[in-house]
Amino acid sequence: SKTSKTRKFKKFSEVDMNVTSLTVGLDGRVFSGSGLNVVHVWSPSGDSISTLCGHRGWVISLALSRDSLFSGSTDACIRMWALGDLSHTRTLVGHTGSINALVVSDDNSKVYSGSIDSTIRVWCAETGLGLKTLQGHDGPVYALVIGVAGELFSGGRDNVIKVWRNQTEPQTLRGHTDSIVTLAVGVGGLLFSGSLDGFVRTWAADDLSLLQVLECTEVNAFALTRHHALVSGCADGNLYIRRPTAITAKGRPYGDAIRVVGWTSVLFDVAMADDGNLYCAHGDGVIVTW
Fold it and tell me: For the stretch 64-90, what's the b/e string if a residue is b when 16 or more beta carbons lie within 10 angstroms of its beta carbon?
């Protein structure tokens, strides 16, 4: 069941095209990618700091390492930017289609990219050199996340999650009936998968058994709060928030959703800042903060 609340939100910024990706730095700077083929950089108060140009297509994925920003685009390239002066340092080339997902390993040594070309590529985060290509999905890869043990989880149009550990063949998690477009890892290593089938699935950290199937709507992005609540950003423009009930229990770790009614246009991405602010990227070019 779901209850609805209308919460006060603030329009953080606005551009002339849909905002398709978001990430927030440790210093509070907000990075957003859009259909204008650029990355916008915003101060914590919403003032424009810089516009990073160079892509020849929409910027649809972003990730941060300790020293760099990585931007992925429909132009099949990943651009690498120095966090200090925001200069372009390298372009990572190898994929043959849109870069739908980016994630940096916890030790900041590697960058993983998932593409419409059905592959995942592994890059050195410092030099930008390609290290490896992972093949296992039968269709575009839409989502990536790093697990607590350093394993890589990936989801895609083939409706499955792949679990990559070292050099072994990936394990496959099944259950969704449509594309998996977002993944998150929560407290204790719980894995969350969001799909266009309208459901969120929760998987156990230890054996990856299915713990819970949560009804939602078309889920586009996840964020986790400091208090371990799961925030689902959905195509209907709303947020669905679930608070943990029993983190370590196998059974029903998350409760019913609270639907937070906010901005009205499609919600493409959500990002949680260290200060607890939640940022939401919308299809009409607006970034909203809560």
Answer: bbeebbbbbbbbbbbbbbebeebeeeb
